């Protein structure tokens, strides 16, 4: 398919982006060309748009960025057999090598050679995008495109929450960005006895409540340790899902965790975090799970199952919708913190 398309380009090493006309990419023999129906903004995209230290070290402009999307297959490569024109798809955005020891033992989510679309290679803030067919997840035709686009970050929430048992356990979710809010819903749908959400943003705490939190704690106005102790009969929470990356919140998370509990960590601190390893880890006998990406493709099966069964409804947390040309307003909404998931429609 020849021609031009509109795409949002990280055009320079600085703040912002530009909407440009670029060539429609051509799929290779193992790839698929997709008409993008919806794309959602992630915190990673905000880092790139704002051009912080992480982005400056990782991203090489000019680059079409964005990595969460859903769309319709409009062209398939000659070796693609399991997808057809007209299929509705979402994408596993981590492209792996398939040859490293991690990939070969079935742990491709920690592939040593991972490339992420919209970060290391061309992304999806565009009218069309190309993906390896192996990375696409076929959706039901009636799944709303903005929900299908949100399956990728929801997979982070599913992976974090279900890296250990949840049913019958108290769960604290620290950090109520969109992935944290989805983790609240996952914990609730998976049978947690009590779900406690902690953040410093009242707007996002209200979304966490809508998505199933039993208790919400404003960590600057209430003492997180006293409050979690109160709601767990003084025992501490069984599971902490750390989604914030905030050093103080991480320290509090270890302190509120019960003896023998589980800490699953997805949030990324911007500086080293000091911990009392003896008292908070060793003598408590806790488990710590570092979470990256989604298990391929167990996590996708779980995520699709939650959505298709109706056990999780993402609509309450999809709060803002913009056409692609209004990208500046969309990013400002994300940066303000007063949003759930923000959608761009090419």
TrEMBL record:
Pfam families in the cross-refs: ADH_N, ADH_zinc_N
Keyword Zinc tagged: yes
Family label: Belongs to the zinc-containing alcohol dehydrogenase family.
Protein name as annotated: L-threonine 3-dehydrogenase
InterPro entries named among the record's database cross-references: ADH-like_C (IPR013149), ADH-like_N (IPR013154), ADH_Zn_CS (IPR002328), ER (IPR020843), GroES-like_sf (IPR011032), L-Threonine_3-DHase (IPR004627), NAD(P)-bd_dom_sf (IPR036291), Zn_alcohol_dh (IPR050129)
Superkingdom of source: Bacteria
Species per Swiss-Prot/TrEMBL record: Melghirimyces thermohalophilus
One GO BP: L-threonine catabolic process
NCBIfam families for this protein: PRK05396.1 (NF003808), tdh (TIGR00692)
Chain ranges of the Enoyl reductase (ER) domain: 16-344
SMART domains noted in UniProt: PKS_ER (SM00829)
Essential cofactor(s): Zn(2+)
Known EC number: 1.1.1.103
Keywords: Cytoplasm, Metal-binding, NAD, Oxidoreductase, Zinc
Species classification: Bacteria, Bacillati, Bacillota, Bacilli, Bacillales
GO molecular function, one term: zinc ion binding
Enzyme class name: oxidoreductase
């Amino acid at each position: 398919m020849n021609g031009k398309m509109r795409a949002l380009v990280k055009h320079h090493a600085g703040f912002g982006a530009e909407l440009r006309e670029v060539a429609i990419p051509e799929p290779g023999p193992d790839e698929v060309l997709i008409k993008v129906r919806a794309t959602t903004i992630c915190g990673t995209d905000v880092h790139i748009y704002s051009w912080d230290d992480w982005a400056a070290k990782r991203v090489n402009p000019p680059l079409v960025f964005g990595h969460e999307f859903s769309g319709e297959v409009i062209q398939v490569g000659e070796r693609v057999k399991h997808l057809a024109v007209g299929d509705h798809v979402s994408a596993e955005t981590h492209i792996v090598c398939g040859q490293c020891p991690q990939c070969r033992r079935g742990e491709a989510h920690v592939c040593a050679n991972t490339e992420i679309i919209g970060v290391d290679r061309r992304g999806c803030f565009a009218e069309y995008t190309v993906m390896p067919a192996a990375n696409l997840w076929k959706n039901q035709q009636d799944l709303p495109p903005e929900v299908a686009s949100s399956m990728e970050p929801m997979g982070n929430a599913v992976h974090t929450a279900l890296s250990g048992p949840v049913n019958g356990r108290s769960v604290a979710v620290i950090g109520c960005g969109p992935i944290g809010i989805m983790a609240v819903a996952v914990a609730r749908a998976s049978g947690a006895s009590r779900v406690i959400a902690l953040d410093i943003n009242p707007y996002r705490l209200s979304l966490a409540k809508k998505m199933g939190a039993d208790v919400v704690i404003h960590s600057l106005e209430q003492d997180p340790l006293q409050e979690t102790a109160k709601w767990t009969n003084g025992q501490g929470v069984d599971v902490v899902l750390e989604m914030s990356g905030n050093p103080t919140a991480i320290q509090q998370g270890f302190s509120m965790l019960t003896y023998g509990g589980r800490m699953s960590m997805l949030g990324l601190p911007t500086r080293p975090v000091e911990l009392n390893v003896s008292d908070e880890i060793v003598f408590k006998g806790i488990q710590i799970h570092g979470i990256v990406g989604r298990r391929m493709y167990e996590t996708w099966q779980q995520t699709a199952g939650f959505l298709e069964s109706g056990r999780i409804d993402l609509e309450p947390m999809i709060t803002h919708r913009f056409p692609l040309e209004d990208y500046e307003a969309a990013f400002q909404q994300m940066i303000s913190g007063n949003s759930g998931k923000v959608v761009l429609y090419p």
